[in-house]
Amino acid sequence: MNHILEILFAPGFFQSEEVMNALILGSIVAAMSGVIGVFVVMRRQSFAGHAISDFGGAGAAIAFLIGVNTLWGFLSFGVFAAICMEFLGKHAHERDLATGIILSIALGLESLFLYFDTHFTGKASAPMLILFGSIFVVGYSTVKIIVFLTVTTAIVICIIYRPLLLSSIDPELAITRGVSVRVINIVFIIVLALIVEECSLITGSLLSTALLIGPAAAALHFTHKIRWTMLWSALIGIISMWLGIVFSYDSYRWPPYGKGWAVSFFVPMLIFLFYLFSKLLGKILKARRVIYDA
Amino acid sequence: MLSLGMFTDSFMINAWISGTMVAIICAFVGYFVVVRQSVFAAHALPQVGFAGGAGAVLWNFNPIYGLLTFSILGAISIGYLSRKEENDVITALILVAALGTGALFLGLSDKYAAGAYVLLFGQIVGVSFQQAIETVVLGSICILILAFLYRPLLLTSVSKEIAEAKGVSTSFIQMCFLLLLGVVCAITVPVVGALLCFSLLIAPTAASIYITSDPKKVMLLSLVISLIMMWLSLILAYISGFPIGFFVSIIGAFFYAFARIISFYKLKYKIVRH
Amino acid sequence: MIESNKFKEVNMVLSTDNICVKFDDRYVLKNVNLKIKSGEFIGLIGSNGAGKSTLLKVILGLLTPDKGSINMFGKKSKRGNRLIGYVPQKVFLDSNIPLRGRDLVALGLDGHKFGFPLPSREKRRHVDEILKAVDAEKFADSPVGKLSGGEQQRLFIAQALLTDPKLLLLDEPLSNLDIKSAYEVVQLISRIARERKVAVMLVAHDMNPLLGVMNKVIYLAEGKAVMGKTDKIFRDDVLTSLYGYPVQVLHANGRIMIVGGQGAMTAGFPIEDHCHPSEVRK
């Protein structure tokens, strides 16, 4: 038994405080992303979700430059971008185009600020931390803020759960039932921005999209009962996160020795594999009439 | 600051050549990106290519081959997996999987930060003469292929049913288009960077559609805007040393905003006249 | 005798021979036989799920029937047949799409061909002529995304006419139209068909707007079809045998309504109502 554990987990795994922190934090953001991701996929807002994390990255780059905790950069730009997108365009395509243009401004600014970061602060690692995150390096104060955000957003989701669900599936019906769809949309996108950004802080702005969309899309392939979908989505996210952390830690023993493979490689890969697997599973279940086309 | 060096420095000559070619092909392909509403794919494919570029950096060969391979693989995957549904989700997942792979490759090489930065945001000093020639050759081939596919591309963008009824295979055309987009992204990334490649693809057309709706005029106007964006960015990047992608995105956004303002006033004027 | 039959076949715009299409274990189309002669205006009527779209797909060559064949002018018809002009159901066009009316119409002529289009005076003249025929000259140079549904529909009809087809297929052009607009569209199509000597097959779930112009009707129900003049088809006995349960045909103010007949409710069958949706507004 010990032998197996030794193979699976490189020495020092369970003793390392950073690893334990990473596991806990990673699970929290993975679970939250998975849950809200279900709504993002249902509402077909994948591009928006991705754009929010990219915007956040620009904010983080500025924050880094002025010496503020990058978390605030992520959050402020993310929420601001979210609100702008909600008011941007009537038709989906025009909105996509406008989102694209504004996204390109954000990324352009990010490139500029990262250039400044590298040249003026001399810390060449700034781009990497912001874009790809470093789950093993998170300060305690940041942890407190993340926990606070998680609790707040979880409460809000519970409060708006039913009207959100209805307006995501059938907005017109929601309006006739008295749901203020406009308000729900705004609240939703702000909550989404908060969750995406807290995830970006941990896993980097480029990869929070994976945790947001992948597990949810995967879960939607084999179950249509929303509560189960959210559960499975969170689960897939957490498992991918854990496996990613384990593999990344273990990979220091893999060639090239001593370097370690990035967590930000394993997590999206695993999620992608889960997704493909779920698609297959979904096809099998449909063929056996266990689930029906919605 | 305004020295002739920007025209005579050898790396700048390469940059001018590649940049111009890339601006031309992006203007034309961009028209179809907008018409086919493939904005997300245009955002994703360059970043998928980035992973290939990172691999090339790791294993020390010409980045364009890495970029090309991954862009094409990415295009095929997106095209194949999203045949029936879930375009956005598939695109997002492939995008992120590729980025993770890129992070892996960079992390394994010694050139982590610098390498990632160049591939993501572009750098004018990075283009060699050989690369410039490759860009021109590939770009010209892309233009020819686009001209060849022009009509079926347009038809399938307007109505899949009519296209199918006329015997056109929409999935084949979509695959061709994505492959073409992949190649275009692969040659644009070394110049403008993976994150801002799509700005060059989208901004010129996005601006032009608010001015005119004649396809030929849109493409011509996009071409003009695209060339201005590129040339201005090259000059400003040379002078300031800032990343070229920054200028491309900001100038592009200016054109877009300008076009929307013009169109807004055109509308007001029309309403007032009646 | 054989020669005159051959002659009839060769002049038949469209004829189908016992088309059968099965999905899983269900017959979506069973032994469908149609004959459309030159210049006829045919309505393909049936409620949703009756098999209208499937039949259309078979005629267009997009779906191969499990049994049976399609012939145009005596010859087997393949996908992409230029003799068929197809106008699909409502096409959604983005409001900013960079395409003018005449560009959309021009796609009907050569949109499927590879190779770069060289502008030709002949092509432009042809497009102009068709635009005039459907009365779309006014908005030929406007962006298609900004046109009304009716204007867009006329452009799609124009695009279908560019190859000089002998049969015009329209898939539910009247759904979501109010009665007046539906009437206008039908008049437009009927006029064009007469001028250009084109046979028309118009798919609809309500036959009433077509009563004035239809030569014949094809009524689809339960995968089976009957074809003939309206007064021969819209009868209790014909439709009852088609449906397999009691059906009544009601006439009121020149309009026809098909409802589950006496005994239909007690037999447990739902009433099928062919009223125009706008008339049944809650």
Give short descriptive properties of this protein.
A: 294 residues; mainly alpha; ABC transporter involved in vitamin B12 uptake, BtuC; globular; C: alpha/beta; Rossmann fold; 6-stranded mixed sheet; 5-stranded antiparallel sheet
Describe the structure.
- The complex is a heterotrimer of chains A (294), B (274) and C (282).
- Chain A contains twelve helices and no strands.
- By secondary structure, chain A is mainly alpha-helical.
- Chain B has 274 residues and is mainly alpha-helical.
- Chain B has a domain at 5-194: ABC transporter involved in vitamin B12 uptake, BtuC.
- In chain B, 83% of the residues lie in helices and 0% in strands.
- Chain B has helices at residues 5-8, 10-35, 39-58, 63-81, 87-108, 112-121, 129-158, 160-165, 170-192, 197-208, 215-240, 244-273.
- The termini of chain B are far apart.
- The relative contact order of chain B is 0.17.
- Chain C has 282 residues and is α/β, with parallel strands linked by helices.
- In chain C, strands 7-8-9-4-10-11 form a six-stranded mixed beta sheet, with helices on both faces. In chain C, strands 1, 2, 3, 5 and 6 form a five-stranded antiparallel beta sheet that branches.
- Chain C starts with a helix and ends in a 22-residue tail after the last strand.
- Residues 264-282 of chain C have low confidence and may be disordered.
- Chains A and B meet through helix 3, helix 5, helix 6, helix 10 and helix 12 of A and helix 3, helix 5, helix 6, helix 10 and helix 12 of B.
What's the short version?
The complex is a heterotrimer of chains A (294), B (274) and C (282). Chain A has 294 residues and is mostly helical.
Strand and helix map with partners:
The complex is a heterotrimer of chains A (294), B (274) and C (282).
Chain A lengths: L1 H7 L8 H26 L3 H21 L3 H17 L5 H30 L4 H7 L7 H30 L1 H6 L4 H23 L4 H15 L3 H25 L12 H25 L7
Helix pairs in contact in A: 2-7, 2-9, 2-10, 2-11, 3-4, 3-5, 3-6, 3-9, 3-10, 4-9, 7-9, 9-10, 10-11, 10-12, 11-12
Chain B lengths: L4 H4 L1 H26 L3 H20 L4 H19 L5 H22 L3 H10 L7 H30 L1 H6 L4 H23 L4 H12 L6 H26 L3 H30 L1
Chain C lengths: L1 H9 L1 E12 L2 E7 L2 E3 L3 E5 L6 H9 L6 E6 L2 E2 L7 E4 L13 H10 L10 H13 L15 H13 L5 E5 L7 H18 L2 E6 L11 E6 L2 E5 L1 H4 L2 H8 L3 E6 L2 E6 L22
Parallel strand pairs in C: 4-9, 4-10, 7-8, 8-9
Antiparallel strand pairs in C: 1-2, 1-3, 1-5, 5-6, 10-11, 12-13
Helix pairs in contact in C: 3-4, 3-5, 4-5
